[in-house]
Amino acid sequence: MKSMVVQQGPATENQALRCRPKLDRQHLWRTLPGKYRTALEAFLRAGGPVPPGAKTIGRWHVPGSIMGWHLIDRDLAAVAEHVGEWADLLECEVYPVIEDDEAAAAAKKVSEK
């Protein structure tokens, strides 16, 4: 059974987590085949709260589909716990994300090489 996929960047990401305490996580979810109604009922019942140590920045749903995004702030362990809570109903992918200004600064460093 395909329950969850948690993808991480290279080992240097751990260094980034220590240097930058606020690294957001984009959580892409898709309902597992045959689990849509169960997932919908669970979401309507509890709302999908995140564990202590994490904070929901926003959650978006693709209308009429089985897919959406959940942007979670901070604690990677809390994000992993949250993904685990939904693993029997959703396939999840977790990505670190940064703001435009941070991406622009990185792009500028690359372009100056």
Structure commentary:
This protein has 113 residues and is an alpha+beta fold. The model is unreliable at 1-21 (pLDDT under 50). The protein is elongated. It has helices spanning 12-19, 36-46, 76-86, 100-111; strands spanning 24-31, 54-61, 67-74, 90-97. It contains 4 helices and 4 strands. A 4-stranded antiparallel β-sheet has the order 2-3-1-4. Strand 2 (54-61) and strand 3 form a beta hairpin. Helix content is 37%, strand content 28%. The longest helix has 12 residues, at 100-111.
List keywords for this structure.
single chain, 113 residues, alpha+beta, 4-stranded antiparallel sheet, 4 strands, 37% helix
Q: How much of the residues is beta strand, in percent? A: 25-35%
- Unreliable spans are 1-21
How many individual β-strands? 4
Distance between the termini: 46 Å
